[in-house]
Specification:
By secondary structure, the protein is of the alpha/beta class. The protein contains 14 helices and 15 strands. The protein has a domain of 214 residues: FAD/NAD(P)-binding domain, CATH 3.50.50. α1 runs parallel beside α5, α1 packs parallel to α10 and α10 runs antiparallel to α11. The model has no long low-confidence stretch (mean pLDDT 92). InterPro entries: FAD-bd, FAD-dep_Monooxygenase_BioMet, FAD/NAD-bd_sf.
Length: 386
């Protein structure tokens, strides 16, 4: 078999655009097909931990990102009942020193703009918008390429082209997202930290977005019945009442913050179980299309970026596509499983109540910041295998 020279990528989100750039650095051309006629990233903010920012820096994007993001000094865990700090992990300059790359927070649209700008300047990348792709066969017919990369998100249509791939399932949690402008923001929102407020069956994350001069707020709570699939839905009165009720026992300042939210959007949180990610010869899933996960470890975007980098490394120069895809899936499956486990642990710890929550708080109070940082060395210190 000849080396891989060109690919078709379905989806121009974070996974697809990063894959196109990573492949171009290896001399592999890509045609990116996106169903939207205009690229507009949904959602609000995201966290780019060092394992992701290192890859983006290697792609030459760090300078552009630094002009848009903030690098918080600390990642804090605080009580949702009292606002008292429970634990702190150093970030900022400490992240660069310990993990060799920055920890940044920014709007999703800013990251997509940086990626899109780089793709538009790359001769080996071609972007086609306004074209809907339903199957891998249809994607392969777009251009005479060697491989189809499905980067079409949690509700991937191309997932059905991979035997053994499993559909997305509702996680039992919903996320509410809204912005709070810096002007008039309550004192509990710190512009120099990423803060997670913890409480029974729910938690709330807040961090600054310098591009919008506002705090990004994500409030997650358990909800047994699944809302309709889809992003960025404005919650109705019943859904808003569920949100208020989920945080009813929290500190009054946090309750006021949630009650005053301006046009909050509710996102049902879906994930994919460990099905197949590649068919062995013509199609591979990456990002949320392969392994969508809940945001309890704040690693969804990072896992997509890692996928893109490793897939490019595995495809570079290979003359055995099946073996390259097998190695990619094997390596990524082990890594993603470990991140999922961390997310499951965080979900348990963040939403703990009663004696378990008291024990959590006691354990955290005994840990020094540097010791807590060491718990993330395996995650944030990750480097893409060649």
């Amino acid at each position: 078999m000849s080396p891989v020279k060109s690919v078709t990528i379905v989806g121009a989100g974070i996974a697809g655009l990063t894959a196109a750039l990573a492949l171009a650095r290896k001399g592999i051309a890509s045609q990116i097909v996106e169903q939207a006629s205009t690229l507009a990233e949904v959602g609000a903010g995201l966290q780019l931990s060092p394992n992701a920012s290192r890859i983006l820096a290697d792609l030459g994007l760090l300078k552009d990102l630094e002009q848009r993001w903030s690098e918080p000094d600390h990642i804090l865990l605080s009580s949702g009942h009292t606002l008292a700090p429970l634990a702190s992990v150093p970030a900022g300059s400490a992240a660069r020193a310990r993990w060799g790359a920055p920890y940044g927070v920014l709007h999703r649209a800013s990251l997509q703009a940086v990626l899109l700008g780089a793709v538009s300047r790359e001769p080996l990348c071609t972007l086609v918008t306004g074209r809907r792709i339903e199957t891998a066969e249809e994607a392969a017919a777009v251009a005479n390429t060697d491989l189809v990369i499905a980067a079409d998100g949690v509700w991937s249509r191309l997932r059905g082209s991979v035997p053994g791939a499993l559909p997305a399932r509702y996680s039992g949690n919903v996320a509410w997202r809204f912005l709070v402008p810096y002007d008039g923001a309550p004192a509990l929102l710190n512009p120099r930290t990423v803060t997670a407020f913890l409480g029974p069956h729910a938690h709330l994350v807040a961090y600054p977005l310098s591009e919008t001069r506002a705090f990004n707020i994500v409030a997650i709570h358990q909800q047994v019945d699944a809302p309709p699939e889809g992003w960025s839905r404005t919650g109705d009165a019943t859904a808003r009442k569920r949100l208020i009720d989920a945080f009813s026992g929290w500190h009054a300042d946090l309750r006021r913050l949630i009650a005053a939210a301006n046009d909050p959007l509710v996102w049902p949180l879906f994930g994919c179980a460990d099905g197949s990610w590649a068919d062995g010869h013509k199609t591979v899933l990456i990002g949320d299309a392969a392994h969508a996960m809940t945001p309890f470890a704040a690693q969804g975007a990072a896992m997509a970026i890692e996928d893109a980098a490793l897939l490019a490394n595995r495809l570079a120069g290979t003359t055995d596509l099946a073996q390259a895809l097998h190695r990619f899936e094997s390596d990524r499956r082990e890594r993603v499983a470990k991140v999922r486990s961390r997310g499951a642990f965080n979900r348990f710890a963040y939403h703990a109540r009663g004696p378990v929550a008291l024990a959590r708080n006691l354990v955290l109070s005994l840990r020094k910041p540097e010791s807590l940082a060491g718990d993330f060395d395996w995650l944030y210190g990750y480097r893409t295998p060649e």
